[in-house]
# Entry
Amino acid sequence: MDDKRRRARVQGAWAGPAKAAPHTAPRPAAASGKPQGWGHERVIPDKQFVYKEPTEVSRRIPDPQIIDKPGTYEISTSTSGVSRLRIFPSFIEPREVEWMFEQLHREIPWRQKSNVGPDGPYQEPRLTCWYGEVPYTYSRSTMQANPHWHPLLTMLKDRIGEVTGYNFNSLLCNLYRHDKDSIDWHSDDEPDLGRDPVIASLSFGETRVFQMRKKPPQEEQGDYTYVERIHIPLDRGTLLIMEGATQSDWQHRVPKEYHDRQPRINLTFRTMFPETKAQP
Ligand SMILES: O=C(O)CCC(=O)C(=O)O
# Structure
């Protein structure tokens, strides 16, 4: 039985008679006059169920933890360090969030990115735009340097810097046009981001669920079945900061959905360290 989900087996058996089953003598007809059998009553052997302890411990797939309240969450600690999330709902006030979305939707030069995966080239199911002094490569495809920041993006970068103390120099903008646009499991761990990269993710438009899963320990051989999971509904104006070992120890994605979704824009601010290729 190689399916781990069925590992927990109750090991027991009908062990048969503990002692020789006595033959039951035919009983006389009941006084009530109910019909008698054919003269032979069925003999039920005196079986006994013997319980044996399961040899392996049952494993439960953990329910995802839902994070939808403001705060700081230390989601794990490992030899790589602490993985930490900070959530700021309404980081952009409701009265600003709508016009910002409209302006970003209209004025960012959105492009279709073509990536290369294990099965060959494919079109990323969302539109993107890169801002930064240096090119950015992921999924074996490079986005060219683009130092001409839109003024609204510069303003948002500075506002995030004032509140968090982080000074970002690059930005990946993502446009999810509808429910079938998505990004698959990955970590933001490209070498140019240095060690323990901090990512600030700001959302506009439709709410989509940002899912996280912990990387499994070595003995699981890449099997994510039993890993911890976190779901964060990122609604308009919410700022999510990922810090510490989050990119070493966790993956994240925005999955496709199966009901109508309006467009969503996500801005992921980062700091690139192109010269060092290592921890600054
Ligand atoms: O859209 C999001 O919330 C996440 C985007 C993301 O993970 C990425 O672009 O690396």
About this structure: Helices lie at 94-107, 151-164, 246-249. Residues 94-107 form the longest helix (14 residues). Residues 65-270 form a domain with the Jelly Rolls fold (CATH 2.60.120.590). The chain has a mean pLDDT of 87.
